[in-house]
């Protein structure tokens, strides 16, 4: 079954020598994913196996964790696991169990990636998952963005190498390789929407088209290509029609109304996403309400949206804002050495020389280790300025800090609060967000600086 290995390799999702966190639940799809990635000899990937125990099925969940741990040992790979009481988390946050589990998993995978310096997170979504996702979103109501479902290379490091491979093909692959897997007993519970679609709706649809899953996945792929083009056009139109000023997104109404309604709605979505970092609870009704406000004959009016968002019309301007603390003033602070440094924005940066840690990963975004040689004093600390660039830890090319904020879904109004730490003119730490490559701590590093930022959140 080298065909699957060849197929994954042909997508060029991973760079040679890249560190990749592999999300392994113990199910057939993730076990197959791990085995395939270990067989990418040319890529020589540095794999880390990550498993989240949802604590939902008692001994069965613990058995899954041990199975994955043993699997990692068999492949001689590092294993990282965490236990999360997903049921309690769902109740506390008002999520469904499925949504709570998803949020907990991805938060964990990204934390492992950060600690290990990984540049990809491989997850085992396959063709049948894609088909189910299309149907779920269709039933809930979605446009092209939602119906394009999942991408092979998604946001925030996520890679999905198996999207064009069916569940049946993966199980056949495992059997041919003599590999076993775990079966989640809750997968048969049709009270869960995804399971109901898998076991009831899709078998019914197969009566009309035996290859319904393939057709749905192909539809998602076509829509994804369309969405990529539309996102590019929207971004260009946003740069032309909007400006960002003091944590506001502002459109000129006269120019805005010359655009087609479909583009206007996308521009509203783009503006709201710039402000808050996501579009949770924003529906077509809200976008229509914004458009009515833009087209209204009233010179002054406003509209409140979910998530503390507000849209205001003032004569010829349409302004989007998000309730937030006052905008941080421009400032600079020089750090000449160890000690506790009170920054002009009210935060405190502590710096002290420590012995090289066994594991430079801290588990906290507010705490980091820097090489004293790679990041020599004096340091300049200041807020983000548009155009700032740096080389993120584990990468070779530079990236705009703005792109980092977008990838991390950091809302616009919070970006001015994030201190940037410069050494010799280069960013060594986007405090609380990402380390730079310049200050990397390696086994050969001598003097190490422990840096911590306090009160990073508003």
UniProtKB/TrEMBL annotation:
Pfam families: ATP_bind_3, TilS_C. Its EC number is 6.3.4.19. InterPro entries: Lysidine-tRNA-synth_C, TilS/TtcA_N, tRNA_Ile_lys_synt, tRNA_Ile_lys_synt_N. Keywords: ATP-binding, Cytoplasm, Ligase, Nucleotide-binding, tRNA processing. ATP binds at residues 25-30. It is found in: Cytoplasm. The keyword Ligase applies. It comes from the Bacteria. It catalyses: cytidine(34) in tRNA(Ile2) + L-lysine + ATP = lysidine(34) in tRNA(Ile2) + AMP + diphosphate + H(+). GO terms for molecular function: tRNA(Ile)-lysidine synthase activity. Residues 379-451 form the Lysidine-tRNA(Ile) synthetase C-terminal domain. The N-terminal region contains the highly conserved SGGXDS motif, predicted to be a P-loop motif involved in ATP binding. Ligates lysine onto the cytidine present at position 34 of the AUA codon-specific tRNA(Ile) that contains the anticodon CAU, in an ATP-dependent manner. Cytidine is converted to lysidine, thus changing the amino acid specificity of the tRNA from methionine to isoleucine. Belongs to the tRNA(Ile)-lysidine synthase family. This is tRNA(Ile)-lysidine synthase. The lineage of its organism: Bacteria, Pseudomonadati, Thermodesulfobacteriota, Desulfuromonadia, Geobacterales.
């Amino acid at each position: 079954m080298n065909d699957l290995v060849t197929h994954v390799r042909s997508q060029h999702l991973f760079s040679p020598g890249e560190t990749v966190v592999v999300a392994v639940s113990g199910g057939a799809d993730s076990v197959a994913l791990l085995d395939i990635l270990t067989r990418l000899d040319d890529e020589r990937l540095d794999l880390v196996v990550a498993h989240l125990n949802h604590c939902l099925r008692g001994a069965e969940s613990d058995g899954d964790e041990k199975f994955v741990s043993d699997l990692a040992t068999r492949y001689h790979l590092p294993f990282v696991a965490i236990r999360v009481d997903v049921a309690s988390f769902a109740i506390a946050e008002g999520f469904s169990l499925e949504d709570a589990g998803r949020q907990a998993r991805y938060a964990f995978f990204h934390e492992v990636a950060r600690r290990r310096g990984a540049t990809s997170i491989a997850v085992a979504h396959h063709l049948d998952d894609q088909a189910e996702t299309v149907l779920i979103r269709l039933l809930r109501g979605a446009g092209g963005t939602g119906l394009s479902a999942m991408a092979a290379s998604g946001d925030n490091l996520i890679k999905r190498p198996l999207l064009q491979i069916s569940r049946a093909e993966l199980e056949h692959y495992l059997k041919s390789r003599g590999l076993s897997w775990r079966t989640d007993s809750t997968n048969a519970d049709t009270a869960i929407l995804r399971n109901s679609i898998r076991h009831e709706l899709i078998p019914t649809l197969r009566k009309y088209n035996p290859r319904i899953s393939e057709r749905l996945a192909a539809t998602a792929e076509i829509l994804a290509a369309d969405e990529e083009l539309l996102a590019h056009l929207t971004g260009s139109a946003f740069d032309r029609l909007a400006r960002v000023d003091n944590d506001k997104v502002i459109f000129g109404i006269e120019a805005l109304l010359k655009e087609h309604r479909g583009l206007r709605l996308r521009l509203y979505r783009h503006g709201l996403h710039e402000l808050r970092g996501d579009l949770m609870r924003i529906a077509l009704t809200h976008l229509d309400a914004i458009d009515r406000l833009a087209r209204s004959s009233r010179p002054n009016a406003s509209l409140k949206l979910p998530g503390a968002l507000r849209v205001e019309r003032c004569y010829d301007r349409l302004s989007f804002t998000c309730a937030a603390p006052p905008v941080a003033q421009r400032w600079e602070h020089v750090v000449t050495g160890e000690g506790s440094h009170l920054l002009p924005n009210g935060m405190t940066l502590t710096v002290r020389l420590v012995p090289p840690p066994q594991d430079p990963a801290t588990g906290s975004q507010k705490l980091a280790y820097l090489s004293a040689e790679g990041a020599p004093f004096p340091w300049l600390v200041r807020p983000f300025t548009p155009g700032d660039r740096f080389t993120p830890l584990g990468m070779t090319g530079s990236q705009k800090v703005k792109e980092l904020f977008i990838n991390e879904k950091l809302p616009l109004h919070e970006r001015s609060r994030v201190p940037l730490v410069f050494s010799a003119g280069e960013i060594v730490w986007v405090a609380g967000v990402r380390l730079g490559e310049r200050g990397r701590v390696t086994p050969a590093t001598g003097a190490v600086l422990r840096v911590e930022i306090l009160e990073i959140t508003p």
